Amino acid sequence: MRLTKLVKIQLAIFVVVALVAGALMVFGYVNVPALLGFGQYTVTVQLPRAGGLYKNGNVTYRGTEVGRVAEVRLTDTGVDAILSLRSDIAIPSDLDAQVHSVSGAGEQYVALVPRSDKGRPLKSGAVIPVDRASVPPDISELLDATNKGLQAIPHDNVKTLVDESATAVGGLGPELSRIVKGSTTLAIDARANLDPLTSLIDQAKPVLDSQADSGQAIHAWASHLADLTRQLQSNDGAMAGFLQNGSAAANEGQQLLDRLKPTLPVLLANLVSINKVAITYQPAIEQLLVLLPLGTANLQGAGVADRDTKHPGTYIDFNLNLNLPPACNTGFLPIQQMRTANFEDAPQRPAGDLYCRIPQNSPITAVRGARNYPCLTRPGKRAPTVKMCESDEQYVPLNDGFNWKGDPNATLSGQGVPQLPPGSAPAQAIPVPGGGRPSPPPGAPPPPIPAAEYDPATGTYVGPDGNTHTQPDLARNGANPPTWQQLLTPPGN
User: Fold this and answer.
1) Does 353 score more than 60 pLDDT?
2) Regarding beta strands 79-86 and 40-47, do their DSSP bridges make them parallel or antiparallel, or are they unpaired?
3) Among 23, 179, 238, 445, which has the minimal tally of Cβ within 10 Å of its Cβ?
């Protein structure tokens, strides 16, 4: 038999097509390499019982088929299911193996449900223990429970149950259809978004745990919210009035701010300076606030004794020990320059500071005088003025006693009474050639002549130190009374 060239070409094409089709059937449909174990690895699942699982059953992971059941065999403690899984899909080892049924008639399969994405992937020879495996309940037990449930229904009332059920769902066909369609659409969308839903379920545990841990706080918040709601309900009229009048009140407030706008910045700027001073003297202000109630209580206590008398007033205890201790005169102007109470004018205050200038540790009088003001910016230092506190100058007493020192008017002796601020130079006296009393500097007013009134009957007078002195020759009947010429001539001339 002689074959033509065309027939040979046709036979060659047929052979090639047959080989390609056979290869597709062997490798694509029949999957012979998988049947021979190529690209597969085995995992053992320990089950308490078979639960209807059979050889060649499907194995799924996250809803995707990843292998088949290679063998189901009995063991001394239960059943071992040998799973043949695809090696190209990485399955985490932290998972559960669950046997499910596709329908009520059977067709069991193994579903691998991951607990987390962490952990190493499964390897050949891995074993899933029985505490991580589950099987569906026996269908016979389910049928027995259903039968018992049906027997529990009174037969006389079955008709009533059917009639009531028909009444409950009668005429709701469109609504039930809409529910079924919506459920179907929801299931289809859930299937399409299976991976995000699975991740959401896996990651929902920390959120749910946080809600459970904060259950008491949520309960307290709900209780407070309920209390607030009850308060709003009980004060409904007040809230309505607030909402009705709130706009007018807000307009009034805005107008007030507009009126204060020109002066408010100046006030706030001044308060900034006061704020700095208050911060510096905060301990002193705090101590004042602590002592103020006690002082107020003492003042109120002074009137307790006479509260219910005919002429209520302040209870005062007059102590006859006058001038004990004596008043401090050191550092003040001489007593002779004291103005009597009948003068109603207000003369200009002399420049400088007038205060008791005795030693700071004097235990006799004026313990809390100006010289002992605490310097808050320099702990441990005490000074009469803020400038002395801030400077390096230390307090120096005028003398070590309570008597006047120097001239009565303190203008030529250079003692500095009143005390001038640091850096101010006192007026210097000009010496007189040939000795004698120095004269005041040019342009300075002449010093006042010191004078004191005395009692002509006894010759007593009050000196610059504030004490009473007696000069016998000034008395009317004293020994050796001075002549009128001696009275007009200063001593020593």
Assistant:
1) yes
2) antiparallel
3) 445
Q: How far apart are CA 240 and CA 342, in angstroms?
A: 67
Distance CA 334, CA 246 (A): 68
- Who's near 478: CB < 8 A, 6+ residues apart? 459, 472
Q: What residues does 59 pair with on adjacent strands?
A: 67, 110
Residues 6 or more apart in contact with residue 12 via CB below 8 angstroms: none
Indicate whether this model's pTM tops 0.70: no
Is the peptide bond between 283 and the residue preceding it cis, with omega within 30 degrees of 0?
no
Q: Which of 263-267, 307-311, 387-391, 450-454 has the lowest mean pLDDT?
A: 450-454
% of the chain exceeding 70 in pLDDT: 76
**Sorting pLDDT into bands at 50, 70 and 90, what band is 437?**
very low
At position 321, the amino acid (one-letter code) is N
Partners of 469 in the β-ladder = 461
Q: CA 416 to CA 397: how far, in whole Å?
A: 11
pLDDT score of 247: 87
CA 293 to the chain's CA centroid? 32
How far apart (Å, rounded) are the C-alpha atoms in residues 478 and 481?
6
| Per-residue pLDDT at 292 | 93
Q: Which two tokens stand for residue 152?
A: 């529990």
Contact between residue 202 and residue 94 where contact means Cβ atoms under 8 Å apart: no
Cα separation, 260 vs 254, whole angstroms? 10
Q: Is the CB of residue 126 less than 8 Å from the CB of residue 93?
A: yes
Give yes or no for a contact between 447 and 409, defined as CB atoms under 8 angstroms apart.
yes
Residue among 43, 110, 47 at smallest CA distance from 77: 47
HEC per residue, the chain? CCCCHHHHHHHHHHHHHHHHHHHHHHHHHCCHHHHCCCCEEEEEEEECCCCCCCCCCEEEECCEEEEEEEEEEECCCCEEEEEEEECCCCCECCEEEEEEEEECCEEEEEEEEECCCCCCECCCCCEECHHHEECCCCHHHHHHHHHHHHHHCCHHHHHHHHHHHHHHHCCCHHHHHHHHHHHHHHHHHHHHCHHHHHHHHHHHHHHHHHHHHCHHHHHHHHHHHHHHHHHHHHCHHHHHHHHHHHHHHHHHHHHHHHHHCCCHHHHHHHHHHHHHHHHHCHHHHHHHHHHHHHHHHHHHHCCCCCCCCCCCCCCCCCCCCCCCCCCCCCCCCCHHHCCCCCCCCCCCCCCCECCCCCCCCCCCCCCCCHHHCECCCCCCCECCCHHHHHCCCCCCCCCCCCCCCCCCCCCCCCCCCCECCCCCCCCCCECCCCCCCCECCCCCCCCCCCCCCECCCCCEEECCCCCEEECHHHCCCCCCCCCHHHHHCCCCC
